[in-house]
Each structure stands twice: as C-alpha cells, then as structure tokens.
Design a protein that fits this description.
- By secondary structure, the protein is an alpha+beta fold.
- It has one domain.
- It has six helices and six strands.
- The longest helix has 12 residues.
- The mean pLDDT is 92.
C-alpha cells in the first residue's frame, strides 16, 4: 500500500485500461484499488486478456502522463515528466519501479522509462519522445494522440465523453 492521498486520486484526470481482444480494442476504467502504485496497476492489468498485453493510460493533474504496460510477467513503464516524482506518489512509484535515480531539473522536465513502450503498436520511441515534448499538448491530448495512432482513438474519445 502506498501513500497516495485522496487529493492525489482526485487529481487523476484519466485512468483507463486498454486491451485488444480478438482484434477489437476495449477500454475500461482503471479501478481505484489499482491506483496505489505502479505495481498495483500492473497487477490489475494482468487481469485483462490481450494479444499484446494490457495498457494503463493515466493523465494526472493536467501535468503529466503515466503509461504502464503488462505483457505476461513483463511490465514496462513510461513517466512523461520525471520532475513530478518528488510531488506525486504515483510518479514516484514509477521511478521506483524503473529502479533508476532521476536528477530532477525543474527547468528541463524529461521522461523516464521506456519510450518504446508502444513501438510494436505503431509509435516509435522517437515519436513518443516528440509527443511528450510537445508543449502545446495537455496530458489528455497526449493520450488521445497515442490512442489515435495505435488505433483506438474513437473508443478513447467516446470514453472521455462519458
């Protein structure tokens, strides 16, 4: 159990699980019990079927995104802005999961983790880096762009409208 506060949970703008089953993209809300930390998210993702694993997309406080992808025992993580780690428990658990030490430079926010997390689904590491660097995109917009490129854009847009 982590130290995620109710205020941090309330600051989560999007928390969705995406998986492909028999060629059809499915989206489901990531349950609250899975929002304790990255490991809890990964455990939740393993409950979903999927030819290419299951993916969690999170947008937090209009500030940063976290992607977690579970493919069997392999768990891949991408945090869009490592400078969020000191202030946000979920961001800190992403850094902890990655097992890296991140020098936090508030003037140069940079991602931490696997930029190639979705390379097999159509977004190269370079393209992901460009998406995360685009200052004109809010975190939800970054997730919408990812959804569009990967192929579940309509489903994601519909989820956001509900």
């Amino acid at each position: 159990m982590s130290d995620v506060t109710d205020a941090e949970i309330d600051a989560i703008d999007v928390a969705v699980v995406v998986y492909q089953d028999e060629g059809i993209w499915n989206l489901a809300e990531l349950p609250l019990h899975a929002l304790d930390d990255v490991d809890a998210i990964a455990r939740e993702l393993r409950r979903y079927p999927g030819e290419s694993g299951a993916l969690a997309l999170l947008a937090i406080d209009e500030d940063f995104v976290i992607l977690v992808r579970a493919q069997g025992t392999l768990v891949r993580v991408l945090l869009s802005d490592a400078t969020a780690a000191p202030d946000w428990v979920l961001a800190r658990t992403a850094i902890d999961h990655l097992g890296v030490h991140v020098e936090v430079d508030e003037t140069d926010p940079s991602p931490a983790g696997d930029l190639g997390i979705l390379a097999d689904l159509g977004i190269t590491a370079a393209e992901m880096g460009d998406l995360l660097d685009d200052e004109d995109l809010e975190p939800e917009d970054v997730l919408a762009e990812i959804a569009e490129i990967v192929g579940f854009g309509d489903e994601f847009d519909e989820y956001l409208e509900d």
